[in-house]
Amino acid sequence: MNKAEINDQVTSYRRFLWKAVRDATDGSAWFYAWMILLTALALVGLHAWAVQVRDGLAVTGISDHVSWGLYIANFTFMVGLAAGGVMMVIPAYLYHDREMHDLTIVGELLAIAAIVMSICFVVVDMGRPERFWHMFPLVGRFNWPVSMLTWDVLVLNGYLALNLHISGYLLYKRFLGERPSPKWYVPFVYLSIFWAISIHTVTAFLYSGLGGRPLWNTALLAPRFLVTAFIAGPAFIIVLLFILRRFGGVPVALRPVQILVNIVRVTLLINLLMVASELFTELYSGGSHTASGHYLFFGLHGANALVPWIWSAVAMGVISAVMFLRPDVVTKPIWLTVACALAFAGIWIEKGMGLIVPAFIPSTLHEIVEYFPSLMEWQITAGIWAWGMLILTVMLKIALPILRQPHPEPNHAVSRENASVEADLPPSLAHSQR
Amino acid sequence: MIETSEQTNAPEAGGMDRRTALKVLGATLGAAAFSQAIAPLTEWAENMSLDEYLQKHYRELSPVDLAMVMARMEKQTKEQTGVDVHIQDYRPQPGVKFGYALNLSVCVGCRRCAKACHIENNHDRPSGNSYIRVLEMEKGSLDLAKGRVNYDHPVPHPDKFYMPVQCQQCDKPPCVSVCPVEATWKESDGIVVVDYNWCIGCRYCEAACPYHARRFNWTKPQVPAAEINPDQGYLSNRLRPQGVMEKCTFCLHRSRQGKLPACLEACPTGARVFGNLLDPESEIRWVLKNKRVFVLKEDVGTQPSFFYFFDE
Questions:
Q1: Residue B277 Cα, gap to closest chain A Cα (Å)
Q2: What is the set of domains in chain A, with CATH numbers?
Q3: A-chain residues near B174 (CB < 8 A)
Q4: Which of A33, A267, A272, B62 is the most buried (most CB within 10 A)?
Q5: ipTM tops 0.90
């Protein structure tokens, strides 16, 4: 490559970035309203976090008895959501499903946003966030391979880098109107599939490796994490595809949605089986090792703060499972959206408040101290969600116009046939970008 | 899509200018709101020096570095509280491994050990923190689930026995393995310590400990100037920063000088036995040999250096 070529490359990459900024900041009044709302929420969360850093974690409801709360609950859920994004990739690449190909980037962008959120949730949980450099190689001390948390740091950042590379490369190539070179992304796509499984397995090992916390100390935890990830991720993407079709004028074929519905249909049932197995083991054997399980589902010595949470989660799981099994529900976008929302919310409770918090109640010396998140914890949590949605919106805004350019690959003609779905929509919706 | 954007970009379109102006206005408002939102961070950063921020791990500090760090901390305490404290780096002695035994037959549950710990180790006053929790147990059972910490009546109650629990200084400490930054480790004399200036405050160790032995500084610990214990160890009872973990160190600033831990000295019944496990003539070795001792939660495989026994 000579100097002129390099200059060309730099110029076109600058144009790509400039177009990205323009695409991300232009839109309808609805778009601006949405972005302003998210920015406001994110700023409220940022302020609450700044106060928490100054005044200490005493502003939260967390204590020496329940030492992890809403933040780590959301962290766990977010890792699952990130891993779940890969469920768009597996059918597309492992089963060579062409129609899925064009939409895989939606899963990858969701993974990026979710990983960013999960990292934010860890940072806000830290007592000394400014000491993050203590983990860096050479200047810090990284307790690898003994500490599972160091594994998690590696796999989460690796997954973020992988997805940034894949989606960034594909978007840039399409912007140039060039055909992406498979050797620059296909190996990374296959790697990302295994990596998605690893991020959630390692996150489960964080908890299941602790012998002093019987509720977590189960081999079922990692498989359960994966199954719930493959509920929350696809459920979110189904709704996201509907939103993109409705407000982004994006042609979404029926088949990708059907594939995702089939995945959620199965994973919801497997998860219910796993919850039932855990419940049986807790209830049938008894003894003080099962006290946390009793506390979670039925309350213990009059303390029962989590009982409404977990039964709502179970109810949402059962109702959404039934809805997903009914053909008349999954073919109607409105009902399918409701089913997805129920499944998503159910998993959020089950994996967060229903898994992280009860392991601390009773404490290791069997004291019963309950946990109630403080207002500031809710503000920070909402702020991080808003920040994640902000990132996702901006990335999708950048990606969609580029993806809707004429496709250079001839064998993608099949997928353009499905663009007829777009024609079914009223023109105002199909071009609601402006 | 592309064409639309190119068109709006054309200079003759008056709407573009307005749009740009609105974007600039929005960005300005956003930046102002952002700086307001992070204002508490600026207040907080004012109290921290660059030296403190860049300080290396305890085990990487040279003796000269460490002396400077301790002098800085003494000066800081003087400025903030007006008290002259003396911080020292007590190192483990060769040929020593500390062990602790507690006679459950004579412990009366008075909680003076917990109080002595509170004072000796410069614990936060408002929360009444201590490294020791005393459980009131049902006779006839060692089930912790039947124990109570918040008993409030004259002791000893005839139907109960009492079991103080503190750090068990495990030989296989789960809290040490889980720490992502090696801010906590086991020293050669068996004491598990924390570098308060290296800990990032993730509290993974607190989740990993099966004995509820670790404590977090949820806020900057408050100790009235008149009550500050000025004899301080770098790895033990010096005033802790906000947002880091702490734990029982068998009072290493005392025990490494041949003194006894504060909890033992405070015990009115002589229930506590402390000493060198490597010395065959020590009292702790005599207890291990002649009493039937047990350790807490042996099934979790932590191998404590803290033993319990009964007389009768």
A1: 26
A2: 32-404 (1.20.1630.10)
A3: 210-212
A4: A267
A5: yes
